[in-house]
Structure formats: structure tokens, C-alpha cells
Queue: 4 jobs
Job 1
Amino acid sequence: MEKQNSAAILLLKQATTLNIHTGNLVNWSRLKKKCPSSTSEELQGCIRETLSEWCTKIAPTLEKEAPSTLECTLTQATEAITPEEREELKVSVKLFLSGSDPASIRIAVDLACSTLGVSQLDSVMIAPPPLPEGVSLTLEHLQPYWEELENLLQSHKIAAIGTSDLDKPLLEQLYTWAQVKPSSNQVNLASCCVMPPDLTAFAKEYDIQLLTHNDSKELLTETSFQESVSEGVKDAVVADWSLEWVLRYSIIVKSRGIIKSKGYLVQAKRIRS
């Protein structure tokens, strides 16, 4: 075990990109032992457990290759969608951005498509990067990310695009400006127990679906991510790893409304000092 952990430490030290895929959480017995109190706690546990198990399964050939992009995936927990079942399933994604580069949206969508074995995601909701304390989200902040989503929709990588936590004025500004209109907007009911009437009226008029969520304002902080990595790979140097994005997916059987699969994809980059 100690030798395998040493191999993991070395691979992390040599890599510049880290991709983590939890596999299908529906089948995770490890999460059922303790019910996480929040989605943030769930994600931290998933990263820790995935890396911990990945450490025990490192192939000797991987050590020799020393790849710059390290794929930390539990192969047995990954379930790609077959062409035969694709029509029966809806693949929905929420993308939490940490970095400010809009191009990371395409990277995340491409990785999700290849991981899940699909050519198109049915819907993608975006949560923009957290802003400094006291700074409010504006249309100018949203525009570069939305343009990237529009490009992906026009190239048929995504079928529908949505937003998260926009109030009525900002949703109206985005709707007026955007070429491709938002099909949905998620509202955090922790911040408002009842849907704001002006938001409800606007969404109804323009056929925007209002959904609820209970995600933290910042799903995973840099510090929490680094802590989860260091707990998964004991004694790993984590201070120079910066979180790029977290993608949460769910695959639903349309006819029955049940979740067939759900999981997280996470990408981080090494910041060279």
C-alpha cells in the first residue's frame, strides 16, 4: 500500500492536469454508510474516496509513462451509455466554474461526452466562477461564458442551456442579449423559501423553466479541494493544484423518471511557481 501511495505522489508531482471521475454514485456503497449533509460534503467525500481507491490500482506501466494529464478514474464504476439506450435517457449537467477561462466549458463538455459515451448532452446549466466579496454578478460577467455555451449548442454538443441563481433583472438582461435563450434557471431555495413573484412571472411569459437546488454558493473552495486530494493521496504536495471546474451529471430514464446514473467530473491544473 505504501509503495502504491508513493507511486501516486510521484505521478501527481509530474502531472500538470488532474482529471477525477467518481463513476456512478448510485452504485457507491461507500456513500450510503454516511449521508452527506450537503452537496459540497458529498463532493469532497467523492474526491477523497476516488483518489484513495485509485492509489491501490495504479498500473506499473502508468508509472513509467508519467503522463502530463493524470486520469484518476475507477474503471469498474464507470458506465458508458450504449447507442441502443441513448434515446431512452436524458443526460443533464451542471457545470461549476472555478477558473475564469470560458474555454474550460468546452473542455468540460467534451470530457463529459467522451466519458459517458454520448455525442450530445441534453442540457447544461452553468454556475459562473465565484466573485470577490461585495462584487455582484452582471451581464458582462456572464457574456463570455454564455457565448461559449451558444457555440457548443450550435455545434450540437448541447441541446439546451440554462443558468443558475439569476434574479429577474439579470435573467431578463441575459434573455434580451442572448442569441440562444436560456431554457431554464435554477433558484436556491435556501436564499428564498418561495420563488420571487417577478421571476416566476417573467419565466412563465418567456417559457423558462424554474428549478430549485440546494448547492452551496461555492460548491468547492480551493482549500477544500486541496484537502480532499491530500486525504485521498497521503502526503501528496497539493498547494500548487488549482481547481478549474466541477461537472455534475445525472442520467435519467425518461419513461420512469428515475436516476440511472450520477457522478462528478473534476479538473484541476498545476500552477507553476
Job 2
Amino acid sequence: MEKVTENFFRWRLDQDELRELLNTRYSLEDQRELISATVQSRLNQTFPVDSQFYSRFTKHIIKTLEGEGKEVCDELYESLRVPVSCSDGPFKSYWIGDQTVSLRETREIISCGTTGLSTWTAGVHLCWWLDSQPGTWGDGLTVLELGSGAGVTGIFALKQFSLKEYVFTDCHHMVLENLRENVAKNLPSATNYRVEPLDWENRDVNNLACDIVLGADIVFDTRIIPDLVDTIKTLLSRAKEAIIASTVRNAATYTNFLQELESAELKSTDLSYKSSQEDVNIIRIQWK
């Protein structure tokens, strides 16, 4: 049930997985436990999933149970009749270690001319890498993130560590607005963060001094790699290192990024991060 619940909050419907669960846990009590963990959960009341996915998920459970001749609990029919709604959603929720991060995201990968309104794979994996670090990681330090997007990495880091400050950066005005909303909803009492505009082409980083630089899924276009590398190099005049996580969708593009780092007199070290599901590389960048 744990995997089904996790997928629900990330708008994923694995029909085989759900059918397998319902084949063994189909009693009325089991059904109530499932909907209490998903559609009727406190988390979904606070950070509701996409309404279209909600309906599809609930209908699929009912259809599967009815198709097997099983009795369906009243709560399932009621959940379908009165779905949870939210004026400022929908949200996806991510479980990383002991933390939960809930983010307002768009249904489309590209929305309003930007890819920054949804969470990308490497951002979640960077969270898992951070989760593997000692609890003292970043104590009293300022961390700056390049291309923060919807905010999963930074919100997780702020929840997990005792940072002096976390600086979220991006360049699209709607991404920045969404970032502010997501951080405020997840960390309503936090004051140790900033959300700042940063265009890598202009590299105005005078007010963005930091100790560590983070970035996830920011290596995707060869045209902007020189500006990205120059931005990292400029930030490393004060920061001790940059940790960059990348989903390698195009080997040539990623190789070009590594070559640009080499040309800029920067050393990259593979941190040997392994994922069984995606091809994700995490590297440390420092001066040679």
C-alpha cells in the first residue's frame, strides 16, 4: 500500500500494482485504509492532488473491485461524488527520508513558456543524495541553488539541515512566484531563505555570495552551457564547491558540459550516486 500511496501523491496510476494490491486487500476495512491514506488523507486535504487524476484513481479502484464482484465501501463512492478541491493547487507530494515536500505544479511539463513549474527527476535524486549526508551537512552555511524550479531540493534541505540561509534562484517570473508560494506553504515559519532572480547570461551574483552551490537538471541545452559554467565559476570564487545532479538524457550534451568545466579550469568529481530507475549523475565541482 505504501507504493500505491506514494504514486497517488505524484499523480501516477500503476494499474497492475493497484490491481495486485486489491487482489489481496479488498475487504471494506482494507478499502477504508487505502482511501484514508490517499483521497481522504489529511495530506490530500491540505495539498490536494490534480482533480482529474483524483477522479481517475478513484474510478479505477471502484471499477477493479466491481469487476471482481467485490463489495465497494460507501466512502469510495462518496469520495468520487465530492472530490477535494483547492483554489491554489494542484500539488504533488514527495517523500524523501523523514521529510515530505508538497509542491504546486502544472500538469504539463512545459507551461507558460518554461519547464520550471514542475519537478524534474534529478531534483528528487539530489534530495536523496542530501538525505545520505551527515545531519550536520551545511550547518551554519549559505547554500545557493541554480534553477530551483518548483523548489523540491531547497525545501527538503531547509527541513533537513540547520542552514544559515538557502537562496533559491531562477529566471522566469512565474517560476519565481510559484517558488515563493511553495516555500511559504511548506515552511510558513522559516525566515532563513530568499528567492532571487538569476539569469546565467547576465550573471549578476554580487548579492548572492554562498558557501555551497546546488543544481539539478540544469544541463539540458548546449546553447546555455557556457553561461551556466561561467555562472558556476563566478560563484566558486567564494563558494567551496558546487554539487550538480543531472538526468543524462543526451550523452553528447552532458559530455559537452564536462568539457566546458575542464576548459574553465574546474575539476569535476563523480560522486558515484546510483539509481536503479533513472540514469542520474551527481558531481562535485571545485577549482583545480
Job 3
Amino acid sequence: STALTSSWAYYGLGLTTSNVQESNARFSIRTSAVGSVWFDVVSVFPPTYKGRANGLRADLAQRVADMKPTFMRFPGGCYVEGDKLVDAFRWKNSIGPISERPGHWNLWGYWSEDGLGMLEYLTFIEDIGASPVYVTNIGISHTDYIPTASLQPWIQDALDALQFANGPASTQWGALRAKYGHPQPFNISIIALGNEDCGKFGVYNQNYEAFATAIRKQYPNILFIANCELSGVPMVDIFDYHIYSNDDWFYNNVHAFDKQDRNGAHVFVSEYAVTQGSGKGNLGAALAEAAFTTGLVINSDIVMLASYAPLFTNVYDRTWNPDAIQFNSTAVAPTPSYWVQLLFSQHTGDVVVPVQVTSPNNTLFACATLYSRTNSISLAVINRAEAAVDVSFDLVDQNKLSGNVTVVTLSSGSLLDENSLDLPDQVAPKTSSFKTQSSPFTYNIEGYSLTFMIIPL
């Protein structure tokens, strides 16, 4: 027990529990006498990822780290906008002591304490070896906006955010970052100006240009992401696609970027997922996304970035469906879509290799890349049909192979199969191998599967 006073004070303690996990456990605070007691910012933390103060739950963070992402887009999309501007994410309210962060209502239907704030995001991104892609509000929410002529405070807020992340410790906001324990800059090199704002209130183009002009003066090397293919607007380095549809759309649009103008801005597919007929995240959705991803890989000279969305959902508060990673207070279950993202991240090389697919029923999709350092080919094959099929692989001008081929397969008996907290590994990758000394060779591709072959040359 601890004596209370008439002033606000911080109280903390460490708890050691038995080795029993209980998802419905409660944390109870009781007083020894009748009276009025005020509480604020009550939080119970398990051990955090890399032991960071106010950090992330280790098992959830590890699932993200296991994907080996090269970047993270943060702090979100619609979360940045807010339903109203008064509810938009404001980064300055998300730094400093947790008890002093005011928090905000967000349009996903809950009060955010902003405990996961600007510094926590940047630190986690650094911890997993990724690069930060920052999304800033440019004076537009879902229901209201700031006219371009009145944007200066919002532009300054974005400039201050970049100084907090990138500035030396001798600057105002860089000094604050150093005070909070990170003297070295985080080096944001890409910033998204708004989220899904094209066409809203007729001001996006003007607001975009005002932000881009001011930022480029101070940070000439930062790349800008526009929310769509803007015509006649300068300083568009990358433009953003958000794609949510059914599995047929993804299969039918594998080649969506084949004819993209190579002299224009690069492409960022920052949100994509099968959201119709996908259950809570089933294999059918994942395979369609995998087929679409082969097109992103093939066109990676123009498709600069891609990311599945959303990332997490608490199973007791599903406000969007599906999501890559499901969890409750004690357990975690990655969906098949998570495994697709992980496998493409872990098994994509640095040089695209042309692939010709002959599939009479259009049930096979493929892409290939070369690992220059190890001189090996990574070949991804999706079979959307139920039946397994013997596929002949011919590596043109490469008759002799080194021998042992590693195979990683994501498959299950039904397209409706899902993972759950009770069955977290019902659909999960399995690794095998086989030997071959020459090309062409034949391999049996399972039905309803994504298969990666790592072929030493």
C-alpha cells in the first residue's frame, strides 16, 4: 500500500506473476478506506521488445521484426486524418511523459492515449532495421479542412516533426529528441503528404504543393508521396495506391503496372488486401494477394514500395477485417496473408529475372529474382487451383545446377482455411528440399499454394 496525497503523483511497481496466462485477468486497484481517489493513465506492461521503456509487447513486435521489413509507414492512414481535424494525430501531443500526453479520439472508435507516439514509432522502426515513412496531415480530415491560405501552422508542424526526427541535437526539436535519449537522428527520407485526400474539398493539390515547397526548401533530399497520380503538380516523387477488393480483382490485375510510365513518379502500393470473401483472413485471400505481389516484384523498377494493411487487430475489437496479425492479451495468430508478406520479404533477391508462365487455365502465377551475392534464384509460384500440378521449370542457358533446392510452401486443404488464437498454425509455411543437377526439372506444386524455391546456380 502507498499513502496518497492531494497532488498528482506517479506510482509504479513491478509485478511477478505465476507462469499461467489468463486472457481475462484483471488488474485491481483498491483503497484501504472510503474516499474519493482520482486515477489517470493506468497501464500494465509486460516485458517489452528489446526492453524499451513504454515499448511494444515483445511477441507482437517480434512478428513484425520477423518479416524483415525495409520500411514502416507510420503512424497510419485515416488515423492521421481524423474524422475531424480536432481529432487528427498531432505528433507533439504524442511525446514526453505518458501522463502528460492528452490523447485523442480516433475514427476507429476508441480513445488513443498516444502512448505509442512519435518517439516510440521511430525507435521501434530503428530497432527492426527498417526505414521510417512518415505520414503527415496536410490540413484535411474526413469532414473538414484548412484552406491553403491558412496552412502555415500545419506546415510548420510537419517541419518541426522532421526536425525532431532528423535534426542535429543543436536544433530546438533535435535537442528534445536528444533529451529523451536519442541524440542521433532517425533520418526520415520519405514523407507522405496526406492520406486518401485526393479530390477532398477541392484543396488537395494546392495544399500538397504548399507543403512540398516549404519542406523541400529545408530538406531538399526528402522524397514526397502524393495520394494519387497528380497532374500538373510539381514535386511528386511517388504516388500512392490503396487497393481493397475481392480475390478475382487481384488475380485479374497482376499486370496492372506493366505499362506504367517509366518516366513518371514511382509507385507506392501502401495498402492492399483482399477484403471480400476473406473471412477473418483466409488462404484464398492470401493466395490472391501473393499473385498480385508477383506483379509488384516484376515491376519493381517503378513500384518502389508496397505494404499490406492493416497490420494488427485485437480479436475483441475488430473494426476492420481482415488484418495481418490477430491477438488478444496473451496470444497471437498471424493470418495466411501475414505469411505471404513474410515469405516475399525474406525470399526476394536484388535482381528481377524474367519469367514466362504457360498455364492453360490461368491458374499459375510466378516471379523470380536473383540473389547476386549467393548466385541463387528465388522463384515464387502460386497455384490457385485445388489440384496439385507437375510443373516443368527451365532455367534458360543454365543447364547445370548446384544440387540442393530449398522449398518453402504455404498451403492448406481449403481456400477458406484460417488461423485463429486456438489454431495459430493451421496455415503456416513448411520447408523441404530436393536435389537436382540440371535444368529443366519437374516439381509437383501443391494445390492452393504459394511455393518458393531457392535454386543455387
Job 4
Amino acid sequence: MLRSLTRGRALLQHSRRGIPQVWIVAAQHRWASNLPINTVVLFVPQQEAWVVERMGRFHKILDPGLNFLIPIVDRIRYVQSLKEIVIDIPEQSAVSLDNVTLNIDGVLYLRIMDPYKASYGVEDPEYAVTQLAQTTMRSELGKLSLDSVFREREVLNMNMVTQINQAADTWGIRCLRYEIKDIHVPPKVKEAMQMQVEAERKKRATVLESEGAREAEINIAEGKKQSRILASEATKAETINQAAGEANAVIVQAKAKAQSIHMLSEVLSQQCGSQAASLSVAEQYVSAFNNLAKQSNTILLPANTGDVTSMVSQAMGIYGALTKPEAMKEKLTMDAAYPNKSQLVSENQIFHSET
């Protein structure tokens, strides 16, 4: 048995010599053991599926571990790897929606889910999936503009996976994910994109600068507004306080004047009050006469300016004229209370007789 295994390995190496190295690298997962020879007793590695044909027809798929086959009748036709396979999608050119030529490449991650379909559904599953990924990428890029390609790479990757799985389901292959590696644009388009980016940055800088200037002007205006409001409130409070002070002063002066008048009336009602009033009027007249012609050169004087006695008599006459209505008012009040004067006299006599 060891001799047969050694001979099988020699034949395997000899068969690989005639195959191009590039094709071997591209299909290394599919041809993991490169069709082992039937040695009756076979050991299948983990995560591999060996498809066995009996007399030219599909017989079974060998599970990992120990397996037995009939020599000559059974033959291992395909060896499929059940591991996740990574395929490098070569760079290809595509035209976007806005007629920009792009060179794009990517990486495809897939796994064989059904070894039977992968063996008999398509001649070379990996090559078929690679071609499908390229054509699907061209189709998806034709639906997007240049800006959308850079902005929606995740959406583009998801659409790629969905389209590949729909077509590769009959091959027993499932695409796990697709990732875009590089996107190359023409030099002129790249320069235009750089200019666009610079213009956008300048625009943002200008907008930010203008917003800063606007905020500064608003802050200055708000400061002036607040200062004016505070100044007006201070002026208002000052005016109110000044008016209140003046009002209080007027009230105090009025009270003082009322008290002085009251006191003067009491003094005048006493004995010798008229003589005191005459003396006060004479003093005021002399004082006013001393101040004549001090403020202005043009003055009007009565004919008897030097006669103090006549001036005092005139002032007292005015005072007497003013006091006469009060005396008349008191008399009228007494007449209204006692219309019959004889009754008032009899009452007084009765009062005196009783006393």
C-alpha cells in the first residue's frame, strides 16, 4: 500500500509538470490533490470533497477520513475544496454613468456549498465566477456616476454579492463578500477632482469666515444694544429719583409755607398783630428798595417811592381787604344759625340770671 501511495505521488508530480504554473495557481483550491489515484484505501483530508465516478457515472462524494473504493471500477473524478476561497479579480476598465472611464479591481470571497453542482454544473467554477464578477462590475458601474462610485462603495459591494449569488446558485457556489481594492481614474479627471476638492475647501473656508464675521457683528450689536438699554434704564431711574426728590421738596416747602401761614394767622389774630405785620412789611419794603437797579438798569417806580409810611399803609389796606371776606363769612354763619336776634338776647339773659 505504501508503494502504491508513493507511486501515486510520483504520478501526481509528473502530471503537474505538463500544466502551466499560472493555471495551477489559479485553480489550486479546486485541484487540491490533483485527482488522487484509487488505491482502494483512501484518506480524505478535512474540508475537502472527493467526487467519485463508478464506470463513468457519478457514484458518491467521499467524506473526510477513511474511505474504501473498488479498483478500476471507481475513479476519483473531481476534488473540491470546501474552504473559503479568495479570488483576485484582475483590473478592468468600465464606463460610469457620466461617461468617465474607470480602471477597477477587487477581491472576491466565495465558498463551494454543493460539490456535485460545482463539479457537473460548470466546467471551471472559479473561472466562471471571476468572469461573472467582472461583467457584473461593469454593469453596476454603468448605473452610477463618478461621485456615487466613491461615495457608495458599500452599496456597490452589496449589489455585486447579490448579483453573483443569483447566477452562481446553480453552480453550487456562494459568494460571501466582494471588496473593491483600487479605483483608478484618468489623470485629467483626477486633476479636475483635485480642483473640485480645493474649490470646495475654499468655499467652506469662505463660508466659515463669513459666519464668523456675522457672529462677531451680531455680538457687537448685542453688546451695544444691552449697553444702551442699561444706560436708558439708568437715566430713567435717575429721572425718577430726581422727580421724586423735587416732588418731596415741593411738598416739604408747601408744608413749611402752610405752617408759616398758619402761625402768621395766629399771630395776626392776637393783640398788636397788625402792628407786627406793619413792621414786617416795612422791613421787606426797605430790603427790596436796597436791591433796586442791581439786576437791570430799567425799572418802574411809583410816585411816592420814598414815603415808607404810605407804602406800609397801602400794604395793610390790601391785607384788610383780604381779611374782610372772612369776617363777613363768619357773620353770615352766625346769622344763619340765629335768625332771631331777640331770641339770642333772651337766651343770654336767661343764662346770666341762672348764673
